[in-house]
Amino acid sequence: MKAVEIAQALTDLAEQPFDPAEFPYAFLEAFDNNATTLKRLREGTTNKSDLGGVLKARHIHILTCDAGRAEQTLAALKASKATVKAKAKFILATDGADFEAEDLTSGDTVVCAFKDFPDYFDFFLPLAGISTVRQISENVFDINATKRLNRLYVRLLLDNPEWGTSERRHDVNHFMARLIFCFFADDTNIFGENGRFKETLAQMSAMDSSDTHEVISTLFLAMNTKREERTAAMIPRWADGFPYVNGGLFSGRVDVPQFSKIARSYLAACRTFTLPKIIV
After folding, report:
1. Could you give the CA distance from residue 208 to residue 137 in angstroms, rounded to a whole number?
2. Which pLDDT belongs to residue 141?
3. Residue 146's pLDDT band (boundaries 50, 70, 90)?
4. Among the four residues 60, 80, 228, 256, which has the most C-beta atoms within 10 Å?
5. What is the b/e burial string over 36-57, where b = at least 16 CB atoms within 10 angstroms of the residue's CB?
6. Is 188 exposed, middle or buried (0-12, 13-18, 19+ CB in 10 A)?
7. Coil, strand or helix: which one is 72?
8. For residue range 151-165, what is the model confidence (pLDDT) as tens digits?
């Protein structure tokens, strides 16, 4: 199941009236658990929960609860012997108003209003076997993706479904390769001190993310324009401090996918990035 399909299924679930008994199965169905799997869980054949919830081994332990008890319920799930024995990767508690979950492998958590939990769809992608960004083999980087980079990548495809088509796969891969170079350049002071690329994005792009793609496109254009050609290319002063990067990475089209507020926040979270080996 594709990430965009999971995100849509969770959005649909959040918009439905909350049904405590059915929610765990609907949540699992969103991650492409088939009818047979869900039937066995309902019948108790494969449900390992010791708390009256739904526990799929090596997957997730879900428990709905009374109003105002999401936090306590999550703690009970974490302390559950069945959670440990079944090697659950996630725990999830909700009362239909509050939503809390934890990745038991990383320790990362989500605490939000129930209506907002689809915004964190990427948090649960490992349940569908999606845990890393696909290798961008068409470009010069061999990428060992971090979780934050993966979240950005998946979110951009969700917000820009046309970029996920076979016709645009090269474009999105090329875009991600350019971003990774910029993250690396910030970390190694190629752009100067204080993380100029990320600082420029924070200062020049609107908080509502409406022009984030335009700011990034302008920076990419600057990096593809020699100093003596920048006046003619009408490179704005705020972008002129970025160096010309030869080698072809920034040549060609400089169109950039649209950024939602969530995607912009993921971009801001990519504060450090160590460039893996470069294929020469």
Report:
1. 33
2. 36
3. low
4. 60
5. ebbeebeeeebbbbebebbbbe
6. exposed
7. helix
8. 888 889 989 989 888
| Amino acid at position 199, single letter | E
The full 3-state SS of 189-256, as one line of letters, equals CCCCCCCHHHHHHHHHCCCCCCCHHHHHHHHHHHHCCCHHHHHHHCCCHHHCCCCCCCCCCCCCCCCC
How many residues would you count in the chain? 280
What is the distance of C-alpha 275 from the center of its chain?
Answer: 19
Mean pLDDT of the chain: 85
How confident is the model over 179-224, as pLDDT tens digits? Answer: 888 888 887 788 877 788 988 998 888 888 999 999 999 999 999 9
Distance CA 132, CA 142 (A): 13
User: What values do phi and psi take at 176, rounded to 5?
Assistant: -65, -35
176 three-state secondary structure: helix
Domain ranges of the chain: 3-128, 147-269
Q: Helices 261-269 and 212-223: crossing angle, nearest 10°?
A: 50
Residue 73's region, left for phi above 0, alpha for psi from -120 to 50, else beta, is alpha
Q: Which run of H or of E encompasses 111?
A: strand 109-113
How is residue 141 annotated by DSSP?
B
Q: What is the mean pLDDT of residues 74-85?
A: 98
Residue 147 structure tokens? 């979780």
